[in-house]
């Protein structure tokens, strides 16, 4: 078989997508900017770096970007609608690199906007059936698919679980981990997920402060699981090179429509309607050819059923799929043509004989 359903395996997505999570002051924005500067030079971009700024803090990146000779533009907003427009402009080629700082504020505003839309102060269980698919369609899917580089930061929060205390017999809540404050799957959509942490050590006369980046996920597995102290672009370079190396043209084949796999009540009604129409047409065609109730006409109808449908049971025929009935109706018309005057002609030899 030769068609374009499959394509040769290759790097058709040479774009970095990196997420940084951590608590305030851990170096998320600084590290994202440092990698953006190195990435800008690596790809030889002449376009500005775009910063979607939710914290009004992009101004502090200005000196670093100017010193690197890189133009930068900013959109100060927390609105998902503005982020969607920003991403659409980069999708159209306006820029090669987008910094989102931070996605947590966009998610929080997204939730609050939904509450205002439904005129409620709290979410109900069924609301998540609207919120999550909308977020996925408007942000998560473009994040993965869009043909430009994205570095996003997100505030960290604690995950909590509970277990039974063997001494008291009571269930107690405890911190079980750290997660980004955003929709549950979003942090794991990018190619690299980084946990940023701030450390300090008080010595006799001075205090040392540093940041560490722990790679929680790296699809290239070049730096997966590693920890870097005061991380720089050079630490991430192996993974970046793996993503950028040997690019191939991106496939433009559209995804199949999974909606066609579902069968709704409307589909069932349409199926029944087509079947009933086809059966009615078959019955009308047979009556036109053999309108009487004579033994000869009855035998001719039975012979037609066997020749065209392969069965002598009309009940069995009535259970067939609409498309099969439509094909057999056309076969009946062809195998048993009417006479020029509208009267039935002598039947041709049995269908398929």
The overall average pLDDT, rounded, is: 86
CATH topology grouping of the largest domain: Rossmann fold
| CATH architecture annotation of the largest domain | 3-Layer(aba) Sandwich
Number of strands: 9
Ranges where pLDDT stays below 50 over 5 or more residues in a row are 340-353
Q: Total domains, how many?
A: 2
How would you describe this protein?
This protein is an alpha/beta fold. The chain has 2 domains: 17-250, 3-Layer(aba) Sandwich (Rossmann fold); 267-335, no CATH class. Helix content is 39%, strand content 21%. The protein contains 10 helices and 9 strands. It has helices spanning 28-42, 62-67, 80-91, 103-118, 128-145, 233-244, 265-289, 295-309, 314-317, 322-335; strands at residues 17-22, 49-53, 72-76, 97-101, 149-164, 171-180, 192-202, 207-218, 227-229. Strands 1, 2, 3, 4, 5, 6, 7, 8 and 9 form a 9-stranded mixed β-sheet that branches. Helix 2 (62-67) links the parallel strand 2 and strand 3. Helix 7 (265-289) packs parallel to helix 10. It starts with 16 loop residues before the first strand and ends in an 18-residue tail after the last helix.
């Amino acid at each position: 078989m030769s068609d374009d359903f499959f394509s040769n395996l290759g790097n058709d997505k040479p774009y970095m997508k990196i997420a940084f999570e951590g608590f305030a002051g851990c170096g998320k924005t600084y590290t994202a900017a440092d990698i953006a500067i190195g990435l800008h030079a690596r790809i030889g971009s002449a376009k500005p770096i775009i910063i979607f700024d939710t914290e009004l803090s992009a101004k502090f990146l200005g000196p670093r970007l100017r010193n690197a000779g890189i133009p930068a533009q900013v959109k100060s907003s927390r609105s998902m609608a503005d982020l969607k427009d920003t991403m659409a402009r980069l999708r159209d080629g306006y820029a090669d690199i987008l910094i989102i700082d931070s996605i947590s504020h966009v998610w929080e505003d997204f939730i609050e906007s939904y509450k205002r839309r439904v005129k409620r102060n709290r979410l109900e269980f069924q609301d998540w059936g609207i919120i999550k698919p909308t977020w996925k369609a408007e942000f998560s899917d473009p994040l993965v698919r869009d043909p430009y580089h994205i570095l996003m930061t997100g505030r960290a929060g604690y995950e909590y679980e509970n277990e039974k205390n063997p001494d008291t017999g009571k269930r107690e809540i405890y911190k079980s981990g750290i997660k980004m404050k955003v929709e549950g799957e979003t942090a794991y959509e990018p190619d690299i997920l980084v946990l940023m942490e701030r450390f300090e050590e008080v010595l006799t006369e001075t205090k040392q402060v540093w940041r560490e980046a722990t790679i929680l996920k790296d699809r290239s597995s070049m730096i997966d699981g590693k920890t870097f102290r005061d991380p720089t672009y050079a630490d991430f370079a192996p993974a970046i090179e793996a993503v950028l190396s040997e690019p191939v043209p991106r496939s433009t084949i559209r995804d199949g429509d999974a909606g066609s796999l579902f069968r709704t009540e409307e589909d069932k009604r349409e199926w029944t309607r087509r079947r009933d129409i086809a059966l009615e047409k078959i019955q009308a065609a047979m009556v036109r050819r053999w309108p009487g109730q004579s033994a000869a006409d009855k035998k001719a109808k039975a012979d037609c059923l066997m020749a065209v449908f392969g069965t002598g049971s009309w009940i069995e025929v009535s259970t067939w799929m609409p498309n099969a009935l439509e094909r057999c109706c056309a076969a009946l018309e062809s195998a048993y043509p009417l006479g020029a005057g509208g009267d039935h002609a002598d039947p041709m030899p049995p269908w398929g004989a």
